[in-house]
Design brief:
Elements lengths: L2 E6 L6 H11 L11 H4 L7 H12 L6 E5 L1 H11 L3 H8 L1 E8 L3 H14 L16 H24 L5 E4 H4 L4 H11 L17 H13 L5 H7 L7 H9 L12
Helix pairs in contact: 6-7
């Protein structure tokens, strides 16, 4: 039975950094967001079996260990496209370690998410497409989306009574070695040191300023309005056609992914 790991997380959780470290070992799979539309490839796999085979093939290292990062949006998309629960499939058919990656400071995570949406710069290696400006509504929107994603993973794991390992980004800043050792133990290999990652922390003075400004704005701004507005479908002809056919209306859940 093939052995691997699924990282269950949401954007701006430090997952790029942590999974880059596992990739750098050369023994813990080749992790990426393989379930995203952009990485499924074209033509996309035609059915469930070819999808699963493609995921394992793309994400494994030379020793056969596979590694996939999954956001709730990815799981939701695969269910809509291929009509099955890919997470349950992997849990039942592979020797699969489940790892939850979260961030303790969700406000900081939301600020990072909002900045990346505005700039298009999701890592230091992406070119900034435009400058960013403070936007309380957008940060709020991102905060509720992240909370929704975290609640989804917690509920999903609890409903299926699945065992998993949980790592918090802030706890890994001093040393991510416990994280690497956990994945290595499942892969039945040994990792003695932390590789050098190509990713760098993107927090800066702007992050701190926005964090303080957001906390101050909470005293006077309407948070409820932000949380309600984010899930409302747009009134378009395409959505009218989706409604008639019984399909999900846009924006889809987790619209930022």
């Amino acid at each position: 039975m093939s052995r691997g790991v699924l990282f269950l997380t949401e954007g701006r959780s430090g997952s790029n950094w942590l999974t880059d470290l596992t990739n750098k070992t050369g023994l813990l799979g080749h992790c990426d967001e393989w379930l995203s539309k952009s990485l499924l490839g074209k033509p996309r796999p035609s059915d469930r079996a070819s999808l699963v085979q493609s995921l394992v093939t793309k994400s494994r290292s030379e020793n056969g260990f596979f590694s996939i990062k999954v956001f709730p949006a990815h799981a939701h998309y695969i269910t809509l496209k291929y009509k099955f629960d890919v997470l349950t499939h992997f849990s039942r058919n592979f020797d699969c370690l489940l790892v939850r990656l979260t961030r303790r400071d969700v406000v900081a995570q939301a600020i990072s998410f909002a900045r990346s949406i505005q700039s298009g710069q999701w890592t230091v290696h992406h070119v900034k497409s435009r400058e960013v400006e403070y936007d309380f509504d957008l940060i709020c929107h991102c905060y509720f989306m992240i909370a929704q994603s975290n609640a989804f993973w917690d509920s999903y794991l609890q409903l299926h009574d699945l065992k998993y390992q949980h790592f918090v980004y802030e706890d890994m800043l001093d040393t991510p070695l416990p994280f690497l050792e956990c994945v290595a133990d499942h892969a039945q290999v040994e990792v003695r040191s932390v590789p050098t990652s190509r990713h760098k922390v993107q927090r800066d003075q702007v992050t701190s300023e926005w964090h303080e400004r957001f906390r101050n704005d909470l005293e006077t701004k309407n948070v409820v309005a932000c949380s309600v507005a984010m899930g409302q479908p747009t009134r378009t002809f395409a959505n009218f056609a989706r409604m008639l056919s019984g399909n999900v209306l846009k924006p889809y859940p987790y619209i930022f992914n």
